[in-house]
Design brief:
disordered N terminus; globular; alpha/beta; D-Maltodextrin-Binding Protein, domain 2; ten-stranded mixed beta sheet; 12 strands; 282 residues
Length: 282
């Protein structure tokens, strides 16, 4: 009799333990923003939901600016951004009675890519700037035979567009004939199909297109070593075009948003950063 009661008790405890472990957090979380961070946010959402099956997470891109606007308007819980939030966006948030909370969550290197057939071996930051501002229009000006340069970049809603303009172009305007595309994937695809093209994409996309585009080492200037965007070079910021990737919330996060960001910064969440192809923040 006692053995039967003990067995039933143990069974009940086992059920309670399994229920407690499987419960996790619940609710619906909306994440929106950076196209660069889209595969990363999807990876985090997938891994988080495995641990918290009662949580529903919606992840969409559209661009960093789109995500931050959605956060300000209250239509998303977390905005992903490949650039720091701008003062005017903080002011807009304050007008809605909150201050955005910033979370650096990963590190990225913006890879400069060309068609695999292009014989160019490397570029300086100045040369990249001159290409994208229109001072250099033909590959022959750089000593190689690849014809007319077709500059490809993102659209104005993109955080990468703005970061590249500020960090590489030093605030100068993009060349008028640049092909502006709505996604990083579209840039990589275009460069892979056009022998004269050059583009800029997040390192995770460069890795996924490894056999279709050629990643160029970049140097800080003439006479300085050209650095390939390896994980170590990006982490140490030796690679010239490195940056942090961010998540933003409406003030200090609570509930499901806090649980998600705690997961993002955990060893498991940072392992997801490496899995996707970016560089862990810690």
């Amino acid at each position: 009799m006692f053995k039967k009661i003990a067995a039933l008790t143990l069974s009940a405890l086992a059920v309670l333990t399994i229920s407690a472990l499987g419960a996790g957090v619940s609710g619906r979380l909306v994440i929106k923003g950076s196209d660069t961070m889209l595969p990363l946010a999807n990876q985090w959402a997938e891994d988080f939901q495995k641990k918290n099956p009662r949580a529903t997470i919606s992840v969409t891109g559209g661009g960093s600016g789109v995500g931050i606007t959605a956060l300000i308007n209250g239509t998303c819980d977390i905005a992903t951004s490949s650039r720091p939030i701008e003062p005017k966006e903080v002011a807009a948030a304050r007008s809605r009675n909150f201050v955005p909370k910033e979370f650096p969550v990963a590190i990225d290197g913006i890879a400069v890519v060309v068609h695999p057939s292009n014989p160019i071996k490397s570029l300086t930051v100045d040369q990249v700037r001159d290409i994208y501002t229109g001072k250099i229009t033909n590959w022959s000006q750089l000593g190689v035979k690849a014809g007319r340069i077709v500059a490809v970049g993102r659209d104005t809603s993109s955080g990468t567009y703005k970061f590249f303009q500020e960090d590489v172009l030093k605030g100068a305007k993009y060349r008028a004939d640049m092909i502006s595309l709505p996604s990083t994937n579209a840039i990589a695809t275009t460069v892979s199909q056009d022998k004269g093209a050059i583009g800029y994409i997040g390192i995770a996309y460069a890795k996924s297109f490894a056999k279709k585009v050629k990643v160029l080492p970049i140097s800080f200037g003439k006479g300085k070593p050209a650095i390939y965007p390896s994980d170590n070079a990006i982490r140490s910021r030796q690679y010239p075009i490195s940056r942090s990737l961010f998540c933003y919330t409406r003030g200090n996060p609570t509930g499901l948003a806090k649980a998600f960001l705690d997961f993002v910064m955990s060893p498991e969440g940072q392992a997801g950063v490496r899995k996707v192809g970016y560089v862990p923040i810690k």
